[in-house]
C-alpha cells in the first residue's frame, strides 16, 4: 500500500489530498484525507481538513503564514492523524499552472539535477506570476521536509500541447513572438482531461476515438472552455496567460487590447503589487486591473457567482445592484455560448456531450439552464429541471457524473462532472510507475 500526497497550490491557498494506492491493483485508489489552507499571507488564514473513513473534521484559524509554513502545517496534521512518519509518503504530485511547451511531467528528487529543473519552472513565473513561483516554493519545501519522497510536477498546459499551430499562434511579429514564447498555451488542462475521461466512461465510449467529441466548460473563479476530440485538446479559450477567454471572478477575459489604455493612463507603468508573490514581478498597472479588478468584481462589485445569482433574485436590494448583477450573469452566459458555438463548428458537430464542471459549473443550476437554453439550436437538449436542481445532492451521494437532460433525440448529452484534478494527477502517476 502506497501513500500518495497530491498538492494543489493557488496564489493564496493550498489544497491537499492524501490517497492510498494498492500497488497490486492498478485502479485501487482510495482517498484518505483532504483539506485546504485558505487566505494564506492574510490575517484571516484558516485550515480545514477531514479524514474520509470517519468523517472526522478539523477546522482551525491560523496566524498570517507563508505557503511554506502552510505546507509544514499540512504535514504536521497528517503526522498527528494518519501517518506515523514522513517516509510513509512515497510520492507527491503537484499541479503546476504553467509548463510552457513541456510535453511530459517533471520528476523531482533530492539530487543535483533538481535545482536546474526548479529554476526552469521558476523562469515561467513571468507568465503565471500568481501561481508558478508558489508551486516552486512548495516543491522546495517538499524536498526539504520529505527528502525520501519522489515529486512529480504535472502541468495545466500539458493537455493542450496537441493544439495545432494555426490555433496557438497569435497574429504578431512572428520571430519576435517566438523568441519571447508568446503563444496560446491554455490552462485547466488537468481538469479538462479528467472530466472528459469520466464522461467517456459514463457514456460507454472510447475517449481516444476520433468520433468522441466533448465541449468541456470549466467554470469557476477562473473559467475556460475546451474542445476535445479523440482524447486531445484541439482548442481552448485561455491563452498566453489565464487572462484570455471567459471573464472570471476578477479577470476581464478577452477584450479589445486597446481598452485598457483608454481606461487607465498609468497602464504602461510598472507598479509593485501589494500581493507578496507579485512583488518580485512588478506587474504593470494594466495587468493588475485586468487580473484583480475586472471580471465579475469589476462589473457588479461581487466576485462570488453564487452571490450574483442571489442578488438577481433578492427583491430587497436596490434596483441598480440587481441590474448590474443581471448584466454580469448575462455577459458570462453570452461569452460561454459564443465559445460553444465556435467549438461546435471546429469539432464539426456530432458532439458526444456538453460538460459543466468547476465551482460554478457544478453548483449554479441557473447558469446551466441558461446556457443550455441558448445552445438548443445546436442539437443540445434542454435540461430536466428536477435533475438540474438535484446535482449537488447526487454528488453528495457519491455520483461523479450527473446527466441533467432527458435524451430524446440526437447524439449530444448534457452532463455535470465533479472535477478532481488531484485524482487525475494520481491516475497519471500510477500509469507511469
Automatic annotation (TrEMBL):
Keywords: ATP-binding, Kinase, Magnesium, Metal-binding, Nucleotide-binding, Transferase. Pathway: Metabolic intermediate biosynthesis; acetyl-CoA biosynthesis; acetyl-CoA from acetate: step 1/2. Substrate binds at residue 95. The record marks 188, 251 as: Transition state stabilizer. The active site is at 156 (proton donor/acceptor). Its EC number is 2.7.2.1. Pfam families: Acetate_kinase. One of its GO terms (biological process) is acetyl-CoA biosynthetic process. ATP binds at residues 15, 218-222, 359-363. Coiled coil: none annotated. It catalyses: acetate + ATP = acetyl phosphate + ADP. The keyword ATP-binding applies. Mg(2+) binds at residues 8, 421. Belongs to the acetokinase family. This is Probable acetate kinase. The lineage of its organism: Eukaryota, Fungi, Fungi incertae sedis, Mucoromycota, Glomeromycotina.
